């Protein structure tokens, strides 16, 4: 009888020990708990991944479904954002690092500048939200090129439909300046364009399991042909205007931080490999969405919250300027409430307008600023943002002076 009681005790002790170990492991794997405003309401058609909390990657089917189900109908914007038009994007990199912007979830808008912020912040998952359907097609194009290009030189060769250097040693560990010099002189290759476009289309539809309508395929051809035609001189395009007023891709890649150090995601193998790795895990998800819309941002917030993520950074560019113009800024602020954030969650903004922002640095047309997202919501609730000017001049965090 005594032996039987001892065996029961040992069995119970084993079960309790196992339960404690499982609980400790689950706690250790969680992100810091985000602040959840009382008004936050989870709304999303998106389901959790096959393995909730899994950050090792999404299946192609899950990636495709998530992007399509979270997306809204495409909207209008007046320009072709083939590239960023913000030369000051690297001026806040040191500040981001000092403020602890690392890991978690990243949300962004626009084209390739997101890859640099992703490389610096090292998030576990990223969503790129843009009102234009064409922007999502462009990001699918980028994703395919990342999958097909194992290194930075091959990435630019495929993006621009140019040949790679014949000298193999020039491909390995090439400096940004060497790559820019080579691809500035390399002529476009029509055969490479045709073959690359076919490979990109096949990768999107078969490997990513993302269906492309006829309109999508025309958008893909239009964007990819533009990179073929313009090469490193491609730029943000408004109407039929080309170059001149806006920085070209070559200049954007060659930008430096406040210490004079090159910092684009194509600068180092380490940064490129991180972004490529996140793409290959299907953890950079493009979404069609209006910042003031009723679905996309709220759905992203619900998905992140369900899976234990906190927003580390939300890059908005200067979208809020248009939200004020269209009288939907309040809707955007309410969407921000639905995101899982904490006191370290940051906005990254490009402050533009018909005035020189106090934080604008010499040599740049706009200033890149940071702001705590919790402070943003507090200021909004106090009625402090009556205009775009108020937004970018109240409680912002400026880059250091060089």
Structure in a nutshell:
With about 400 residues, the protein is of the alpha/beta class. The protein contains 17 helices and eight strands.
Could you tell me the mean pLDDT?
85
CATH superfamily of the domain at 60-147 and 256-393: Vaccinia Virus protein VP39
* Class from helix and strand fractions: alpha/beta
First-to-last CA distance: 80 Å
For the largest beta-sheet, the strand count, sense and barrel status come to: 6 strands, mixed
Largest beta sheet: what is the strand line-up? 5-3-2-6-7-8
Rg from Cα: 23 Å
Helix content: 40-55%
- As a percent range, the share of strand residues is 5-15%
Q: At the first level of CATH, what is the class of the domain at 60-147 and 256-393?
A: Alpha Beta
